[in-house]
Amino acid sequence: MNQTEDFEKKLLGIIKPEPKVEHSRFLKLPILNAQKSASLGVWLIAAPLFILACICMKILFTHQGSVWISFFETLAKLDDSGWGWFYGPMIILVFPVIAFVLNLLSIIRFQYNREQKDLMVTVRLKWGNIIILLLSTLILAAFMSYIFTENIHTN
Questions:
Q1: For residues 33 and 110, is the Cβ–Cβ distance under 8 A?
Q2: In Å, what is the CA distance from 102 to each residue of 10, 32, 37, 78, 144?
Q3: Contacts of 103 (CB under 8 A, 6+ apart)
Q4: CB-based contact 111:21 (threshold 8 Å)
Q5: pLDDT tens-digit readout, 35-91
Q6: What distance in Å separates the CA atoms of residue 77 and residue 4, rounded to the nearest whole number?
Q7: 110 CB neighbour count, 10 Å cutoff
Q8: How confident is the model at residue 134 (pLDDT cuts 50, 70, 90)?
Q9: What are the phi and psi torsion angles at 7 (to 5°)?
Q10: Residues near 105 by beta carbon (within 8 Å), at least 6 away in sequence
């Protein structure tokens, strides 16, 4: 019994280590999965890219008119279809915006330091997501320039 009592005293006398956990001070959140949002982004910008490719092919193979005339004619034909008033803006504007937001949230991480009350934003270099961000920005710029030039009225 003497040995067991000594052993118990030693066990009771041991100081428990306190782990210093760094992650409890920081909140680091990846909002979305980068690979899934990249694949969804490809599908969301495929239709607007197809429309832009058709416009480019029309310009290259017909050799008539300008870029803007072909652009206007193609989008006017899209509007003339039965549900074009609904599907046109959905395909051309909403899908690239959704692709942009999803891919932006998948490559940005937010880190919050509670002690210093500091928010740090980091960007991960996921090239697939960055390419989709750039493509959706170019699509939006092209169609927004169309919308602005279509609605300019000279007095």
A1: no
A2: 57, 7, 6, 26, 20
A3: 37, 38, 41, 129, 130, 132, 133, 136
A4: no
A5: 888 888 888 888 888 888 877 777 777 766 666 676 667 777 776 767 666 777 777
A6: 91
A7: 14
A8: very high
A9: -65, -40
A10: 31, 32, 37
